[in-house]
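User: Round two. Same drill as before: sequence, then structure, for each protein.

Assistant: Same drill it is. First protein:
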Amino acid sequence: MNNLLQFLSLSDPNVRMVVLGATLLGAGAGLVGVFTLLRKRALLGDAVAHSILPGVCLAFMVGQSKNPFVLLLGALIAGWLSLLAMDYLVRRTKLKADGVIGLVLSVFFGLGIWLLTIIQQSGAASQSGLDKFLFGKAASITSQDVNMFTWVVLGLVLVLLLFYKGFKLIAFDQDFARSVGMPVRLLEFLLSTITVLSIAVGIQAVGVVLMASLLIAPAAAARYWTDRLSVMLLLAAGMGIIAAWSGAYVSFAAPSMPTGPWIVMALALLTGISMLWAPKRGILGRSLRQWRYARKIALENVLKILFQLEERSGMAGKGYSRVSILEHREIEPGPLNMVLRRLKRKAWATEINSLWRLTEEGLTEARQIVRRHRLWELYLHERLNLPADHVHPGAEAMEHLLTPELEEALQRDLGYPVTDPHQSPIP
């Protein structure tokens, strides 16, 4: 607990620099990563991250300095060259996009490793620490780095705000953006530039190997929670910040633990939680909705069976045994018993001497289901010209999906009919 309070106070200057730097990098990468993910360019980010290394090495060899702005310029040039190379190879050769990405990544990264080896063997005192671009070392972030990160992230945010509408259009429908007169090539150039910038500054924290995670994971996690781009941007930035603080804290509490990989581990955890628990798209959320829907269908089917048995006998209020229900429709005895218990809890059915009958409330619910079924049968028969003996399966599926508004529209379209294609009355 003391460690956590000490960390949150940011009293240690080194901790303060690491937290501020990681926060800026996490937020910036999260924002840009949203558009990278939506444009289906996730692997492109990984290729650019690896391709930046030779630019950093050449910038150092020319300037003989580890000035972050000089290294950033070299990284930006190398990243752009890799994008141009990939674009050219895709357009001018028969290679597929994934093959081009792998080729450019390996060539540029191999060149970067070669240049880094030359620098390390040169004996230059100033080359110490350059390998952090390969594996990342957030713990070595300085105030000069933080200043650079601040300007870069502010620039990213400014560009996103100024061109938000255009970026949104090309992320979802580039052809439409072009048809309404949007400068698509300029917008793509700007998006590519800020993507390269965010990658170039981010590799100092997590390295070229893990940079794709910092770029894509916050956006992928945020996508599970919302359909709105503005909310997705805020969530991605927030998750990038949470991961940055988490990684910095682990490194603070256990100094032998590197910050960058733990930032990625935190992002992996956030993504996993989103995949499982997000209400609309999460695995558990989808499974819960499917389970509830299956229960709803089972309940409505048994209601319909009890109504049809009563309709067939012509005796209101008559009870029916489980055997009669099973004979009317093939249902497993176990699920049937559970559905009958649910009907009893809802007061839609009662059991007297092992015979089940609908209550007034249950009869009202059953009428609605049967009405939707028979209306849909009639619609399939009259509007789609399906034979009367072929309409049941479609109606069986749709009866559970029709809302009261759609039901009213269906009745109006059919002229408020009184019988279905089989001449059964529509309740």
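Second protein:
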Amino acid sequence: MKYVDEFRDGGLAREAAAAIAREVTRPWTVMEICGGQTHSILKFGLDQLLPEKVRLVHGPGCPVCVTPLEIIDQALAIAARPGVIFCSFGDMLRVPGSREDLLSVKARGGDVRIVYSPLDALRLARENPGREVVFFAVGFETTAPANAMAVHQARVEGLKNFSVLVSHVLVPPAMEAILGSPGNQVQGFLAAGHVCTVMGFQDYEPLASKYRVPIVVTGFEPLDVLQGLLLCLRQLERGEARVENAYGRSVRAEGNPAARRMAGRVFTVVDRKWRGIGLIPRSGWGLAPEYAAFDAARRFGVAEQTAEEPAECISGLVLQGRKKPPECPAFGTRCTPERPLGATMVSSEGACAAYYRYRRETASSISAAS
């Protein structure tokens, strides 16, 4: 496929890996932020092309994975209400809450619908004026502008039966939480190209300077990842620490100004709890005061709901790059995509799901030996 196959060329990938091997003289640990990058690394075996000195760890770049348990429980409580049409992207339906998931609510008769855009939920609100329509607004900065536009349009149209359950998270504060952790081992980052397409990469520059870590913006195809890794390792070897853009075909320093303005108009920065990690100050977006009428958590009285993470699940350590999925005793046995303990196993971008799909036999043997 044109514009895809050229970024999956095996010969060029081996050349990039050889270039990395020539650059590296000592051990380095690099974290890829995005779950899409994690899946690309495992699917195409990129980590197996690298010299032993290069260690890749997987970051918290899966929005489904980091949506806190209490917000999943809030979604379940709202979706079970009579008269509610609960709309969500499909990847949220099997994420486990404290006791069940959205598919279970749907099986019991709840009107839970998969949509492909928040505008689909807006259309349902127009078509069903006698029912409450709720959209599950989850994601990083990438999906926030479209969700913000839906809320803004609902306000313009005066739709009183539309609301959103918001769980938007921001990447730079999560990176700072990892870098500031006493157990941090990350020495460089591959930043997510789709987030930077929207937001740009200027917010990463203070992190690179403060913590002396190189941050390279890159894409998701094999050659994107390898090129980004080469640039990151080159900086590490030279003692440099700056933000570098290896995804110039999509990313500009300022991002998408129109999208940023819309997100900044509808949302305001808030403290946000991340599933498996905990509270990270100023790491999320919530509805701005002038749009508070569209807050589903307040409208349905579930905002104060809390929940405890299952003790057996180590997804928080996986999301911080401190452990890999095979190190979990439950991996592939008590935790599978069909019966997940945590969101990292069920999400299409989750690290545990990637290992289960692409490295299941190897991962299982590692888990048994640990």
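Residues 363-370 have pLDDT under 50 and may be disordered.

User: Perfect.
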